[in-house]
Predict the 3D structure of the following.
Amino acid sequence: MLSIEDLTVRLPHTARPAVDGLSLTVAENETVGLVGESGSGKSLTSRAVLGLLPPKAEATGKIMMDGADVLAMNRAELRQHRTRSVAMIYQDPRAAISPFRRVGDFLTETIAMDRAAAAGLLETVGLRESHLRNRPHELSGGMLQRVVIAAALAGRPRLLLADEPTTALDVTTQAEIIALLRRLRVPGMLFVTHDLELAATICDRVYVMYAGRVMETRPTGELFRDPRHPYTAGLLAATPRLDELGTLPPAIPGRPPDLLAHLPGCPFAPRCPHVLDSCTAGVPGLVGGVACLRAEELCDERP
Amino acid sequence: MNDLDVTGLRKSYGRFTAVDDVGFTVPAGGSLGLVGESGSGKSTTARLLLGLERPDAGSVLVCGRPVAAVSRRERARLIQIVFQDPFGSLDPRLTVEDCLTEVLKLHFPAPSYGKRVGELLEQVGLGPREAGALPRQLSGGQRQRVAIARALAVQPKVLVLDEAVAALDVSVQAQILGLLADIRAAEEVSYVFITHDLAVVGCVADQVAVMRHGRVVESGPTRQVLTSPQHDYTRLLLDSVPRAAF
């Protein structure tokens, strides 16, 4: 359904592309996770799918949505694309809704939709018709995120882009919203998050991004059972876990690179415990879903 | 003597009671996790601990001394706080070195501060390059280290960490958690960890108190509360934590 080929996005005044040669696919009836830390380029990627790049950004490559290239669309086509093919849910629902308008107005203003249809949508996301008359400040963050999800569903999108949809919510509310997203069964979903564990609960397949590049992409179960890239392994180990009480998770030394640093070779090399000289010589390609020169070798070393 | 004794703390805003009969103790060098969702009263509790708000009832004793009755400067020497977003609590115009020097000047008059500033920065894993930097030139993790160094500068008895690692990336969060554990092992300081993240509490806190609607609904040793929760709400919180479904 969605197929991104070799997408590179450059921002002005930076030394390296913010998204660097990214390829990604979302098939029909698939939920795909895009996981990375801040600055890894995951949000920029999801915005590129909507054709919503910052004004001075330069993008090359292809973003094919049902056979049409988003990067080559004119304004009318983009509008059609954004209303009918793809819908987005953002992190903070309070920033996505005008605080002055009623929920009902918000749902009906953009797309020609009557009250009954709007009420039906609210029901789908677990709210009642009476909420149409509420103003945003009268609803909790979780309820408001449901409203935003309802609005995203209004155009019957083929693909739902969820950019950190639960990060601003409490953990119990997060569980409810995740359950809702699971139940909705939109034809396809790209789930962007910094939280590997959360991605594991909802995604069929996960892309792990670092410094604009895909480090590893495999089906969720495999990735978690047996992470092949040192970055994925480090990230999983660094996540505090409830079943390991009282032990401090091992940290990854160093810090993520900023956009002003030019990175020859593997971007993770400066922080990697298994680094070799050859790691900085050239950029490792994705082989078997892992972009690491030593993936095979490290895999064999393990018991 | 306990580092922190909190009894019967209550704070109302109009008809709304934000904190209702909250009490806990932290032994010397201990670490308490205060867990709850937004609106549970955990941040108001933090403000009451620091003396930034006056409680309607109850008392906060740090090493046996009531924070409500001591002078501001003395209070600052007893208890310090690190907030979620250090950007909001660091002066954007002061370099890291100036920021630490200012605190030291206020509390420990001395001819020079360079040595102590160097020690503090080293303690939190920063070097001379960061010492001359402004907050905006640092990464989120580095800024949080500066905020921790500034709080430690006065050698407080209790350090309150209000969602101090929540805004950090996982790989950096683990670094800061490790740093905090090292500091607790080396210094005579105890922690109050305010967080919504049960997994974080599990790896840093000896004791945990779960708050809901301004009340402590369950408290006890971390392992006991997280492995055999007694209250329904604690159970709901634990069940809501995302984990990989293998």
